[in-house]
Amino acid sequence: MKYKSQKVAYWFFAACMLLLSLQVIYGFIMGFAHMGFDGLHSIIPFNTARATHTNLLVMWLLTGFMGAAYYIIPEEAERELVSVRLAYVQLIALLVVGVTAIIGFHFNWWEGRKFLEIPRPLDYLVVVDVLLFIYLIGATIWKGKRYTTTSMVLFFGLLMTALLYLPGMIPTDSQTMDSFWRWWVVHLWVEGVWELIMGAILSFLLIKQTGVDREVIEKWLYIIVGFTFLSGILGTGHHYYYIGTPKYWLMVGGVFSALEPLAFLAMAIYAIAMAKKGGRSPDNKTALHWTIGCSILSFVGAGFLGFAHTLPQVNMYTHGTLVTAMHGHMAFWGAYAMLVLAIISYSMPIMTGRKLQDTPMNMFAFWTSNIGMVAMTVAFGVAGIAQVYLERKLGLDFLGVQKEIEVHFFGLILAASLFTLGIIAFIWNFIRFGLPSDQR
Ligand code: HEM
Ligand code: HEM
Ligand SMILES: [Fe+2]
C-alpha cells in the first residue's frame, strides 16, 4: 500500500461481504416463494423480501464504490485521505441508516417505489452521509499533487450519483410523474453515471495490472464517457413507453436505448485489448479474471440482454415480467457486482500484505459464481418467456400463470445454490486474508 489511509477501504469491503450474504438469503426466500414454498409469508412477505433483496444490493454496491474510491483516490492524487476518522464515521453512519431501512421494511415502513423504498426521513440522512463522502474524496483530489483522468471521471461519476438521488425525492401525487422521476434515479444511475464509475475503476485496474501506458488506457475512458452520454440520457425513454408520458418517447427511447450497448461493448474491447497489449504475466491472476470477466459479462447482461427487450414492440410484451428479472440479474452482476469483486480481489493482497491471491479456491470462487449466475439468468429467462406467452399472448390471469411457472424455479434454486457456493468461497478467501496491515 502506498498510502496508509487506503486501508479504510478494507472496512467498506468487509461491509460489502456482509450485505451480499444477506442479499443472497433474501434471494432464496423469494426463489422458494416462487416455487410455492412461502412458509415465511407471515413474517417476511414477498414484497418485503424483494425490497430487502434489491436495497441490500444497491447498498453493498455503493459501499463497494466508496471503498474503491477511498483506495484509488490517494494513489491517483498522490496524498493521504484528508481525514481517515471521518471516513469511518461515514461508513458507520451509512450502515446504521441502511440497516434501519431494512428493518423498517419488515414493519411496513417503506415508500413502495421499486428500488427507492427507503422512507423519506432516512433519505435525508443518506444525502448527508453521501455529501460527507463526496467532500472527503473531493478535498483529497483538490489538495493532491496530481489530477488524473481516472480520478476525475471517478469523482464526477460519484458526484452525479449523489445529485441524481434528489429527483427521487420530488414530492408529487401523480403516478405518472412519480414514475417519471423515479427513472431519473434508477436508469440514470445504472445506465449513466455508474458507467463512469465503472470506466474509471476499470481504468485504474488495467493501468495497475497490464503495465500499458496510462495515456493509452485513459484515452478509452473518453470514448466510454462519450458513448454513455450519447445513448444513456435519452435512453431513459425506454421506461417512458407506457406510463402516461407523450408518445414521442416510443421513438426517442427506442432509438437511443438501442445504442446503449455500444458503451458496454467499448468497455469489453478496452479491457481485453489492454490485457493483451500488456502481455506481462500479472501477479494477481484472480483480479485480472474479475476485471476482464466484468467487462465481458456486463456487455452480455446489460448490452445484449438489455437490447433484447428495449424496443417498444418487444417491451410491450415483456414489461415487468421475469424477462426483466433475467436482465436485471446478469446486468447488475456483470457490470457492478463483478467490478466491486475485482477491486476487492486486486487490493486485498496489497492491503493485508498476504499473497494469497492465486489459490485454487480463488479460481473456484470466480468460475462457480459466474457459471451459477449464467445458469440463474437462463432459469429466469425460461420462466420469463413462459410467463410472457401464457399471460400476455394467451391472456391467462397473472396468478394462474405464476402457478404454471413454479416448476422453473426449481432450476433457479439449483443454479442459485451453485452461485452461492462460489460466493461462500469468495468470502472465505476474504476472511483468510485477515486484517489490513500498515506495512508497505
Ligand atoms: C449495467 C447496466 C444495467 C443494469 C444494472 C440494468 C438493470 C435493470 C433493472 C434492475 C431493471 C428493472 C428496473 C425496474 O423495473 O425498476 C431494468 C430494466 C430495463 N432495462 Fe436495464 N440495466 C442495465 C442496462 C441496460 C441497457 C444497456 C439496456 C438497453 C440496451 C437496458 C434495458 C432495459 C429495459 C428496456 C428495462 C425495462 C424492462 C421492463 O419494461 O420491465 N438495460 N434494467
Ligand atoms: C442466491 C442468489 C439469488 C436468488 C435466488 C435471487 C432471486 C431473486 C428473485 C426470486 C427475485 C424476484 C423476481 C420477481 O420479482 O419475481 C429477485 C430480484 C432481483 N434480484 Fe436476485 N437473486 C439472487 C441473487 C442476486 C444477485 C447476486 C443480484 C445482483 C448482482 C440480484 C439482483 C436482483 C435484482 C436487480 C432484482 C430485481 C429484478 C427486477 O427488477 O425485476 N439477485 N432475485
Ligand atoms: Fe433503463
Please explain how this structure is put together.
The chain has 440 residues and is an all-alpha fold. Helix content is 77%, strand content 0%. It contains 15 helices and no strands. It has helices at residues 8-35, 46-77, 84-105, 120-143, 149-163, 175-210, 214-235, 248-259, 261-278, 285-307, 312-318, 322-352, 360-393, 398-404, 408-433. The protein is globular. The mean pLDDT is 96. The structure holds protoporphyrin IX containing FE (HEM) (2 copies) and fe (ii) ion. One protoporphyrin IX containing FE (HEM) is lined by residues 114-115, 186, 190-191, 238-239, 257, 260-261, 298, 302-303, 306-307, 309-310, 315, 319-320, 324, 327-328, 331-332, 335.
What is the SS-derived class? Answer: mainly alpha
Q: What is the architecture at the second tier of CATH?
A: Up-down Bundle
Average pLDDT for all residues: 96
What's the total helix number? 15
CATH top level class name? Mainly Alpha
Q: Might you state the CATH topology name?
A: Cytochrome C Oxidase, Chain A
The largest sheet, given as strand count, sense and whether it forms a barrel, is: none
Form type:
globular
Low-confidence stretches: none
Terminus-to-terminus distance: 5 Å
Oligomer: single chain
Q: Tell me the number of strands.
A: 0
Helical fraction = over 70%
Radius of gyration: 21 Å
What are the secondary-structure elements, in order, as H or E? HHHHHHHHHHHHHHH
Bound molecules: protoporphyrin IX containing FE, fe (ii) ion
